[in-house]
Specification:
With about 100 residues, the chain is α/β, with parallel strands linked by helices. About 35% of the residues lie in helices and about 20% in strands. It has helices spanning about 20-30, 45-55, 70-80, 90-95; strands at about 1-5, 10, 15, 35-40, 60, 85. It has a four-stranded parallel β-sheet with strand order 3-4-5-6, covered by helices on one side. Strands 1-2 form a two-stranded antiparallel sheet. The chain is globular and about 40 Å long. It starts with a strand and ends with a helix. The model has no long low-confidence stretch (mean pLDDT about 85).
Length: about 100
């Protein structure tokens, strides 16, 4: 069992790449996931669709450096969705430039 820094005990963590919100939500529900993690640059509409179906499930985005400093408005959109975290939002060089 994984217990994160925020005290979330997780037996089942689902990591999803380029899939539709419906496919992610259906898989997450069928697997009774404790945490949902989305990989890549996720737009707010996709994350919002997942959040609507899983209001209490910890949800995080691992952007793998897909965003740039000029993408800051999407962070504001994602922030309102109550994410556990956004992992690695900027590439290393983008962070150093900023």
């Amino acid at each position: 069992m994984f217990e994160g820094a925020v005290g979330v005990k997780a037996r089942r963590v689902g990591v999803f790449g380029a899939q539709t919100a419906e496919a992610i939500a259906d898989t997450a529900a069928a697997a009774a996931l404790d945490i949902i993690q989305l990989h890549g640059a996720s737009d707010a509409a996709l994350v919002d669709a997942i959040r609507q179906r899983f209001r209490e499930t910890p949800l995080m985005v691992d952007a793998n450096g897909a965003y740039a400093p000029e993408d800051f408005p999407i962070f504001q959109e994602l922030d309102r969705l109550g994410l556990m975290m956004i992992e690695q939002p900027l590439a290393r060089d983008a962070f150093e430039e900023h």
